[in-house]
Design brief:
binds fe (ii) ion, about 65% helix, mainly alpha, Ferritin
Length: about 400
Amino acid sequence: MALTEDHQDMRSNAELIGRDDVNDFEEIFHLVGAIEEDGMHVVEDNCAAMFTWDYEKGARPKLDKLYEKAKKSQWNGSTDLAWDTNVDQEKIAHQAYLDGATGPLANPDLDLSGTPMATWGETEWVEINMQYQNWMLSQFMHGEQGALLCTAKIVETVPWIDAKYYAATQVMDEARHVEVFSRYLDTKLSGHYQMNGHLGLLLDDIVADSRWDMTYLGMQIMVEGLALAAFGFMAQTTPEPLLQQLLRYVMADEARHVAFGVLSLQEIYSDMTHAEIRERQEFAFEAAIRMRDRMQGQEVWDRMGVSPAAAAKIAEQDVTRVDFQSLLFGKIVPNCRKLGLLDAGDGWLREKFTEMGIIQFEHFEDTEAEVQAQAEGSPAERDAAGIL
Ligand SMILES: [Fe+2]
Ligand SMILES: [Fe+2]
């Protein structure tokens, strides 16, 4: 045990995330998402399917309660959303430009002299606003498919009947999320993007890990925690009513999913050794770095003919954007704290999150409390009753 711990204490950034300097842009942009010729991507999921003969429903009362809530919270992506809404993406992107939006950058007052963007006018900034939206929604859609696959895997691998039941409701939720993001992209926006390489790497790692609790940590805590925050920001900032509605409905589900992760992991982490917990801390750090790398939006810059590394150097100076990016971790950090991951062992993850500039969110509301505060019933019913 001591040997393992010593070895783990020495694991470097290069071993954990493939580079020594977390801010090495050349290394970050070296990774490009693959376009598979046959339109499929195959990952071995290395899992053992687990039957249980203990059918006692409610043996884990909190999971049981969440399952009952999930059954009453279903909505229909085909009929509950206002798909007949007319969406003029270019008009919205133009208004955003007039309001100071600059695609993946957040501050319209940056000094761009000497960069390719110095000569940009209205046409290019409106175009990048549209491309950025296409890119964001495409990444949401790919991430949702990752959640669909991971949750189906949890149904197989988790040993507890209450968790299998709950995960089955989440499979249906995720199918609906893929469906509605895909439909919005196809019918309301102006193009698709392949999966970002960093997001792809993370999803592959989550799917390939044979340990069922790692699926939860990667997906429910990290990916879905970030998604919940990102959907919330987009819902607050978009003026488009259909997208607002779609995001509000998806978020009502996502809050439950994150709570499912916290509830399940609390139980299993309490029996783990220091070395096992350290591996979970390292995985949480790797996931946080992958998600931060993906936010650079490198495919958008590529499509606009700008080197992503040049754009990243400007983005780095953009204090508004740096603040915004760290806020996206506002759901993840309190949940890691609740799971005991921040301070376990020698507080390794607390140190890493401090270096990343995200530790200040540790006392934000955790997601279990958020779900308990949620009104009963589906978002569509609440909408109809005027209470969402
Ligand atoms: Fe989802
Ligand atoms: Fe989800």
